[in-house]
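Just scan my protein:

. . .
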Amino acid sequence: MSTGQEPVFPEYETDTSQTSKLLRKFKETPFVPIGMAGFAMVVGYGLYRLKHRGEMKMSLHLIHMRVAAQGFVVGAITCGVLYSMFREHLMKPKEERKTD
C-alpha cells in the first residue's frame, strides 16, 4: 500500500502493535482466550490419558475427548455471551437505558 492512498479500513489499520491489539481483544472478550486455553488443556489431558486408556478402544477415547473439548468451548462461548449481555444491558447508566 503506497503512502498516498487512503486505507480501506482505517479502524483496522492503525499503527498499534500486534501485542496491543491482542491484549485489547482479550479485554473486550475475555472468554475467548479462556475457551482456547481450556480446549488446549482438554487436548493435552486427552493425549496424556491416551497412554493409560486400558481396554478402551481408540475411537471411543477420541470421541470422549472431542466431546469434552467441544463442551468446554461451548461453555466458554455461552459465558462470554452472557457476560457481554450483562455488560451491555445491565451495566449501562440509567440515562442511556431511558433513551433506548
Q: What stands out?
A: The chain is about 70% helix and 0% strand. Helices lie at 18-28, 31-50, 58-90, 94-99. Residues 58-90 form the longest helix (33 residues).
